[in-house]
Structure formats: C-alpha cells, structure tokens
Amino acid sequence: MTNTINCVRDKNNDVLVKKAKKDISKNKKNIDYQSKVFALLGSEVRFRIVYLLLNNKELCVCDFCDILEMNQSPISQHLRKLKDAGILENKREKLAIFYFIPYSMREILQLLINSKAKE
C-alpha cells in the first residue's frame, strides 16, 4: 500500500514540523500515559465509576454493584484496571475495600468529566 498525502498548502513549514516531532518525542512517556487514561475512560462503565467517585468521597464494590446494577466480578475488573493506571486507589476497612480518586488525579478528572455537553 502506498502512502499518499493529499494535503494542499503553499509551502511546507519545516520548522513547525521539526519542533512538533521533537515535542512529541520529548513527551512520549506523558503522552503514552494520557492516552492510556483516555482509553480507560472510553469504557462507559469505567467512566461511570470515575464519575461516581468524583461525586462521592469513596465507594465500595457493593455500592458500585447496586448503583450500576452489575455483578461484582465485572465491576472488580474495571476497578482493577483503573487502580493499575493510578486513576483510583483503595483502602481496606475490615472486609470491605473502598475505592477513591487520589488528590493528584481529582482535579484533572473533574475538568474532563464534569464538562457539560453542548445542546
């Protein structure tokens, strides 16, 4: 398959292209992490979990099951993925495990999730 470019412009902006490539290369680690966060939030269930935790200090697995009307197993899998990415943390109280959004992630997620849809 040939790679054809159908872009129409008067001249190439080599300085801009070089600077942008350097920026992407320099920030690869951050871009990869941010891409992973967006991919995780692309799941409607995980998005709802984060939304719920932004509006509640902490919730346990049973709370999520009741609210989202889902079984514990898939909820736990979604929570694990969010925790592994550093989006959530958890704490144990007796037999219950409570999930919460760490302070370092809260402000960023609030900006993303609490924005209103345009009507």
Q: If you had to describe this structure to a student in words, what would you say it looks like?
A:
- About 60% of the residues lie in helices and about 10% in strands.
- Helix 3 (about 45-55) packs across helix 6 and helix 4 (about 60-70) packs across helix 5 (about 70-85).
- Strand 2 and strand 3 (about 95-100) form a beta hairpin.
- It has a single domain (about 15-115), classed as Arc Repressor Mutant, subunit A, CATH 1.10.10.10.
- A 3-stranded antiparallel sheet has the order 1-3-2.
- The model has no long low-confidence stretch (mean pLDDT about 90).
- It has helices at about 15-25, 30-40, 45-55, 60-70, 70-85, 105-115; strands at about 60, 90-95, 95-100.
- The protein is built from 6 helices and 3 strands.
- It has about 120 residues and is mainly α.
Task: Provide the descriptors you would attach to this structure in a database record.
3-stranded antiparallel sheet, Arc Repressor Mutant, subunit A, 119 residues, mainly alpha, transcription regulation
Spatial extent as radius of gyration = 20 Å
Q: Helical percent range? A: 55-70%
Name of the top-level CATH class: Mainly Alpha
- Secondary-structure-based class equals mainly alpha
* General shape: elongated
Mean of pLDDT: 89
**Biggest sheet descriptor:** 3 strands, antiparallel
- N- and C-termini, Cα separation: 42 Å
CATH superfamily: Winged helix-like DNA-binding domain superfamily/Winged helix DNA-binding domain
CATH fold topology: Arc Repressor Mutant, subunit A
The percent range for strand residues is 5-15%
- Summed up, the helix count is 6
N to C succession of SSEs: HHHEHHEEH
Q: Order of strands in the sheet with the most strands?
A: 1-3-2
Which stretches are low in confidence, meaning pLDDT under 50 for 5 or more residues running? none
Number of domains: 1
CATH architecture: Orthogonal Bundle
Oligomer: single chain
Q: How many β-strand stretches?
A: 3
GO molecular function, one term: DNA binding
InterPro entries: ArsR-like_HTH (IPR011991), HTH_ArsR_DNA-bd_dom (IPR001845), HTH_MetalResp_TranReg (IPR051081), WH-like_DNA-bd_sf (IPR036388), WH_DNA-bd_sf (IPR036390)
Keywords: DNA-binding, Transcription, Transcription regulation
Protein name: ArsR family transcriptional regulator
